[in-house]
Design goal:
mainly alpha, 2 helices, about 95% helix, about 0% strand
């Protein structure tokens, strides 16, 4: 049974790291959104400003995708841990 306990501990460690990454992504999304809004206000009529805002928007979409994947991974790990305890 020690092996199952070791696996469970490893999974909890991974789950903690995933949760940390999710928190970092949230902070990054907030920072990008704030900067994107400022850039839109200051340079929104300028073509390069519009390009910058669009790049930030694409980055936000990518971060949202990664966030969803990490959340799914975290949920799957939690379910697996629950199944190990049965």
């Amino acid at each position: 049974m020690g092996n199952i306990s070791d696996i469970e501990n490893d999974l909890h460690s991974i789950e903690d790291r995933v949760a940390s990454h999710i928190e970092h992504l949230e902070r990054a999304r907030n920072e990008i959104t704030e900067t994107m809004n400022k850039a839109q206000e200051k340079f929104g009529k300028d073509q390069s400003g519009q390009n910058t805002v669009m790049s930030m928007y694409q980055a936000l979409n990518a971060l949202s995708s990664v966030d969803g994947i990490l959340y799914t991974l975290k949920s799957d790990i939690q379910n697996y841990i629950g199944n190990l305890k049965k």
